Amino acid sequence: MTAAAPRTRAALFAGAAYDPSAAPGGLLAWQRPTGVALLQHGDAAAVGLPGRNPAVGPGRVAWREGDRLVVADPGSLAPVAAYDAPGAGAFALSELWLAWRVRDANGADRIWVRSPVPTARPRAVAGAAAPGELGRPALAGDLLLFHQAGPAGSRLVALDLATGRREVLRTEPGAMLSNPATDGRRLLYVHATGRTQELRIGPLRPRDPAQDTAVLTAPSPGQRDPEHEPGHARTRPQIPLPPLARPGVDDTLWTTALTTTHAYVTRLRTSRRAPRSSDILRVPVPRAG
User: Fold this and answer.
1) What's this model's pTM, rounded to 2 decimal places?
2) In the CATH scheme, what is the code of domain 11-284?
3) pLDDT digits (tens, 9 = 90+) for 24-47
4) Comparing C-alpha atoms, which of 40, 35, 45 is closest to residue 21?
5) SS3 (DSSP) at 211
6) Tens digit of pLDDT for each residue in 49-78?
7) Helix, strand, or coil here: 243?
């Protein structure tokens, strides 16, 4: 059994925001629906970035400019490299790799990676044909994380880009497991069933999801949000979830990020009385043992 839901409630970290990204050294980045991307370093005020869909890694920040991923110094924002990534949507970076997801005209998903070495070439390391999907990638060193979902269920996958070893970290019949994040030692993800959504945390190794700790619990919405970015339509079905949220309001826990002290999660909200919105919540987490 998972640990009981914590007494500490989630705090609002950023309103009108989605897709948090975190890295060692106090780097946090996120996107606003208005198109503005923001970077925060420690307790300093957030600064705007010149591109969209930001991601951070150790000593680096990156953003998307059209079909190029620009990597920059987080202090000066001076670019240090740029890479072609046609069709790139969600992406991640570490000190060793860049990873990005592409959806083709037939609805198939692929995750591409490349080393920052100038002579390196991109390569596809994972794929899923519609109605399956691959989630937003996450990176820690050589380790690539993503969720894979389809009519038969979902799973959280880890791929060692140096050795090619692939492991299923979590899977559970009848549950939707999605949006993994890591600080290099722990695994954070969203666990959703027909009754609840939980933000769960556990060790970065394969095990039963029931052994992980729920740090945030919310009712399941009547309909899961169809995509990770507000304004991007999606039609492929996921695991059906019955309506259990408050009447007229559906909240969906979506993309995540993890630091040594806090978990961050996008909350997507649809309401009969207000426009669709997205916010980033912050939840304290147990320190790694």
Assistant:
1) 0.89
2) 2.40.128.630
3) 999 999 999 999 999 999 999 999
4) 40
5) helix
6) 999 999 999 999 999 999 999 999 999 999
7) coil
